[in-house]
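hey so u asked for the seq, here:
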Amino acid sequence: MNSKNYIIYSLYSKFFFMIKYKLKKFEYATRLLFVNSLTFVNKSPIIVEYPKSGGTWLAQLIAGSLDIPFPRNTYPKLVKSVYHSHYLPKFLIKENKNIIWLLRDGRDIMVSSYFHHLIWNDKNRKDKKLVDYYRGKLNFDDFDDIKTNLPVYIDFLFKNTPSKMTFFNHPGNWGDYNKAWLNFYRTRKNIYLVRYEDLLEDTYKEIEKLNREFLGVQINEKSDLEKIIKKYSFENQTKRKRGNENTTSFLRKGIVGDWKNYFNEDAKSIFKKHHGEILIELGYEKDLNW
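ran it, structure tokens below
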């Protein structure tokens, strides 16, 4: 490629990147507008979760069991749909009728997030901005040395607040995010708590209970729900058993308690320092002696 063609190619690449960037921002803004308005009318279920808590999976299960759309990574629909978000209880979002708060052990999220932010996989390769940002901020000698890097990463994740130009809707850190929703959950009836760990242990029980007790939907055909659960199971989507790790896959391992394989004493100390108390408040530990 000669210099003239290279310049033209570079200009076209930058142009299409800017178009894609602006369209993505518009999609985010449209979604934010919908969950502050339209979803009140059609009573769309809205999942709120800190990233890497299993929200996509839960959204697939709910959409499948209710037979309604789940517009993932695309513009929202005017009809009743399942919305998956990382929104805080701000503005009118908290007034929605069917808010489902998905909670996951923050220690597992630290490990899962590390892989998502700093190790290339089949999803983040399609939008390199995320990995480029975190690798630029955390200039580790060896990104694959997770145990050594994890304490610094955890500390960074709890303190860092990127600009809105970098991340349109940054949820803050795991502890503050879930503490905000916990305070809201204690005083309101329009929010339902689902724990990722319970969902993993008995998916049918949790989805049937969610539909019956909160969404007011009775599951009449057990086999229909079982088919939906099987369709979106880790095993079916990855063709691997849970625990069989693939670090290049967005669905990496699919287990509870993986943090024990990566947390050293420094990682434990940093996590306890920032949000050890909220871990206890959320019921994941009885004290700080873990």
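Confidence is low (pLDDT under 50) at residues 4-23. The chain has two domains: 3-106+173-235, 107-169+244-281.
lmk if thats what u needed
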